[in-house]
């Protein structure tokens, strides 16, 4: 692993965050606000294996961003992919994380806003699952409540949930991607580093684990408003994405997924109890 003070991958970019898998940089690309995700090498892995995994994961993530648009899920547009260096440069979306939006709405006593964001999350995740994909890291930090077009700072800029909420009613009349004429929050999904198209034989298991990861994230991050996850799951089960799907992604498959979630929960409780 390289050091945190490594040079930025592109001129003018500044380090935003660093995790176990890579770094996030913020800057401008061709005059547009952008995010650069850089995967760095792992010293503990064999060099050839490290290069192979970096290339595979970089390509898979870039493809996932493109595929989301095909199923009606808003995701950042990819500006540049450098497979050799493990770099993906993408659009920096205007808005705030769903985590921040829920926390601030709950603190302000705005239960309606909490429910609206939670239900938008449930519908978005249902569309991902109904199309046969799993995300792999469904936390509210990986979901963006979009600001109205032409307003708000890019996510990560600290604009506050109020900036994302302001003007949503006017923007909803135009029903942009991810929005609706009813004034529901417009959401986007980010960070597809662990995403995959699940095999039909593993679809229920993969979806169940995806939902369990999301439930655990809600439990830890939004423990003071458990109703948020309830609203998310209600919207997930009632999403119109299921009625439009066929075969392994049908409504019957949705019911199987919800049943499988119970099994995953049971395994999780057993693991916590016995290690």
From TrEMBL:
Enzyme nomenclature, EC number: 2.7.11.1
UniProt keyword terms in alphabetical order: ATP-binding, Kinase, Nucleotide-binding, Serine/threonine-protein kinase, Transferase, tRNA processing
Catalytic activity as recorded in UniProt: L-threonyl-[protein] + ATP = O-phospho-L-threonyl-[protein] + ADP + H(+); L-seryl-[protein] + ATP = O-phospho-L-seryl-[protein] + ADP + H(+)
InterPro entries per the UniProt record, alphabetical: Kinase-like_dom_sf, Prot_kinase_dom, RIO_dom, Tyr_kinase_AS
GO molecular function terms listed in the Swiss-Prot or TrEMBL record: ATP binding; protein serine/threonine kinase activity
Pfam families assigned to the protein according to its UniProt record, in alphabetical order: RIO1 (PF01163)
Presence of keyword Isomerase: no
Domain Protein kinase: residue ranges: 10-275
Top EC group: transferase
Membrane-spanning intervals of the chain: none
Single biological process term from Gene Ontology: tRNA processing
Keyword DNA-binding: no
Assigned GO CC terms: cytosol; EKC/KEOPS complex; nucleus
Family: Belongs to the protein kinase superfamily. BUD32 family.
Protein's UniProt name: non-specific serine/threonine protein kinase
Organism: Cafeteria roenbergensis
Lineage, broadest ranks: Eukaryota, Sar, Stramenopiles, Bigyra, Opalozoa
